[in-house]
Fold this protein.
Amino acid sequence: MDRQPIILIVDKSHSDVELIQDAFLELGLRADFLLAYDGEQALMLLRDGQRRPDFIILELNLPSPDGRELLAWIKSHAELKRIPTVVLTTSSDEADIAACFDLSANGYIVKPPRWEDFVDVIRSLQQFWFSTARLTDSE
Protein backbone atom coordinates (compact mmCIF):
# COMPACT_ATOMS: atom_id res chain seq x y z
CA MET A 1 0.00 0.00 0.00
CA ASP A 2 1.62 3.21 -1.19
CA ARG A 3 -0.79 5.57 0.53
CA GLN A 4 -1.97 6.30 4.03
CA PRO A 5 -4.28 3.57 5.30
CA ILE A 6 -7.94 4.39 5.76
CA ILE A 7 -9.07 3.29 9.22
CA LEU A 8 -12.74 3.18 10.15
CA ILE A 9 -13.29 3.64 13.89
CA VAL A 10 -16.78 2.68 15.08
CA ASP A 11 -17.40 3.62 18.71
CA LYS A 12 -20.23 5.45 20.46
CA SER A 13 -17.76 7.18 22.79
CA HIS A 14 -16.33 10.34 21.26
CA SER A 15 -13.54 10.29 23.86
CA ASP A 16 -12.58 6.70 22.97
CA VAL A 17 -12.49 7.60 19.27
CA GLU A 18 -10.15 10.48 20.11
CA LEU A 19 -7.99 8.18 22.27
CA ILE A 20 -7.61 5.71 19.40
CA GLN A 21 -6.65 8.48 16.98
CA ASP A 22 -4.26 10.07 19.50
CA ALA A 23 -2.56 6.74 20.15
CA PHE A 24 -2.00 6.12 16.42
CA LEU A 25 -0.67 9.65 16.00
CA GLU A 26 1.59 9.34 19.05
CA LEU A 27 3.07 6.21 17.48
CA GLY A 28 3.67 7.99 14.20
CA LEU A 29 1.12 6.17 12.04
CA ARG A 30 -0.30 8.61 9.57
CA ALA A 31 -3.75 7.42 8.65
CA ASP A 32 -6.93 8.74 7.15
CA PHE A 33 -9.66 8.16 9.74
CA LEU A 34 -13.32 7.57 9.01
CA LEU A 35 -15.45 7.94 12.13
CA ALA A 36 -18.83 6.45 13.01
CA TYR A 37 -20.48 6.87 16.41
CA ASP A 38 -23.19 4.25 15.94
CA GLY A 39 -23.93 1.25 13.78
CA GLU A 40 -26.15 3.19 11.38
CA GLN A 41 -23.40 5.74 10.60
CA ALA A 42 -20.97 2.88 9.98
CA LEU A 43 -23.44 1.20 7.62
CA MET A 44 -23.88 4.45 5.70
CA LEU A 45 -20.11 4.87 5.31
CA LEU A 46 -19.62 1.27 4.22
CA ARG A 47 -22.58 1.27 1.83
CA ASP A 48 -21.43 4.55 0.28
CA GLY A 49 -18.20 2.88 -0.81
CA GLN A 50 -16.52 6.12 -1.89
CA ARG A 51 -13.80 5.71 0.74
CA ARG A 52 -13.49 2.02 1.52
CA PRO A 53 -11.55 1.42 4.75
CA ASP A 54 -8.43 -0.73 4.82
CA PHE A 55 -8.99 -1.58 8.48
CA ILE A 56 -11.92 -1.40 10.94
CA ILE A 57 -11.80 -0.93 14.70
CA LEU A 58 -15.19 -1.84 16.16
CA GLU A 59 -16.76 -1.38 19.58
CA LEU A 60 -19.46 -3.96 20.39
CA ASN A 61 -21.67 -1.73 22.50
CA LEU A 62 -23.28 0.49 19.88
CA PRO A 63 -26.73 1.86 19.22
CA SER A 64 -28.60 -0.20 16.65
CA PRO A 65 -27.27 -2.08 14.90
CA ASP A 66 -24.90 -3.14 17.66
CA GLY A 67 -21.31 -4.19 17.04
CA ARG A 68 -22.15 -7.88 16.65
CA GLU A 69 -24.81 -7.14 14.05
CA LEU A 70 -22.49 -4.74 12.23
CA LEU A 71 -19.67 -7.30 12.25
CA ALA A 72 -22.02 -9.94 10.83
CA TRP A 73 -23.14 -7.52 8.11
CA ILE A 74 -19.54 -6.60 7.18
CA LYS A 75 -18.41 -10.21 7.01
CA SER A 76 -21.44 -11.23 4.92
CA HIS A 77 -20.63 -8.83 2.07
CA ALA A 78 -18.13 -10.02 -0.53
CA GLU A 79 -16.69 -6.54 -1.08
CA LEU A 80 -16.17 -5.92 2.66
CA LYS A 81 -15.45 -9.27 4.29
CA ARG A 82 -11.71 -9.14 3.59
CA ILE A 83 -11.28 -5.86 5.48
CA PRO A 84 -9.49 -6.72 8.74
CA THR A 85 -11.96 -5.97 11.52
CA VAL A 86 -10.70 -5.90 15.09
CA VAL A 87 -13.09 -5.59 18.00
CA LEU A 88 -11.81 -3.11 20.62
CA THR A 89 -14.33 -3.10 23.42
CA THR A 90 -14.91 -2.93 27.15
CA SER A 91 -16.49 -6.40 27.26
CA SER A 92 -14.35 -9.26 28.52
CA ASP A 93 -17.32 -11.67 28.43
CA GLU A 94 -16.30 -15.05 26.99
CA ALA A 95 -19.60 -15.30 25.10
CA ASP A 96 -18.88 -11.96 23.36
CA ILE A 97 -15.38 -13.09 22.44
CA ALA A 98 -16.61 -16.41 21.03
CA ALA A 99 -19.47 -14.73 19.15
CA CYS A 100 -17.11 -12.25 17.50
CA PHE A 101 -14.72 -14.95 16.34
CA ASP A 102 -17.71 -16.99 15.11
CA LEU A 103 -18.61 -13.90 13.04
CA SER A 104 -15.06 -13.84 11.59
CA ALA A 105 -13.57 -10.97 13.59
CA ASN A 106 -9.85 -10.70 12.91
CA GLY A 107 -9.11 -9.95 16.55
CA TYR A 108 -10.68 -9.15 19.90
CA ILE A 109 -9.11 -6.77 22.39
CA VAL A 110 -10.47 -5.55 25.72
CA LYS A 111 -9.84 -1.82 26.16
CA PRO A 112 -7.29 -1.31 28.91
CA PRO A 113 -8.04 1.44 31.44
CA ARG A 114 -4.55 3.02 31.57
CA TRP A 115 -3.29 5.28 28.73
CA GLU A 116 0.10 3.56 28.59
CA ASP A 117 -1.55 0.16 28.19
CA PHE A 118 -3.95 1.59 25.60
CA VAL A 119 -1.00 2.90 23.56
CA ASP A 120 0.61 -0.54 23.83
CA VAL A 121 -2.56 -2.11 22.38
CA ILE A 122 -2.57 0.35 19.48
CA ARG A 123 1.19 -0.23 19.00
CA SER A 124 0.49 -3.96 18.67
CA LEU A 125 -2.24 -3.30 16.10
CA GLN A 126 0.03 -0.93 14.21
CA GLN A 127 3.01 -3.28 14.21
CA PHE A 128 1.04 -6.28 13.05
CA TRP A 129 -1.55 -4.84 10.68
CA PHE A 130 0.44 -1.94 9.21
CA SER A 131 4.01 -3.25 9.32
CA THR A 132 3.90 -7.06 9.25
CA ALA A 133 0.63 -8.14 7.62
CA ARG A 134 -0.20 -7.28 4.08
CA LEU A 135 -3.46 -5.39 3.57
CA THR A 136 -5.34 -5.47 0.28
CA ASP A 137 -5.50 -2.20 -1.57
CA SER A 138 -9.15 -1.16 -1.43
CA GLU A 139 -8.89 1.36 -4.24
Notes: The helical segments are 14-26, 39-48, 67-75, 94-102, 115-132. The mean pLDDT is 92.
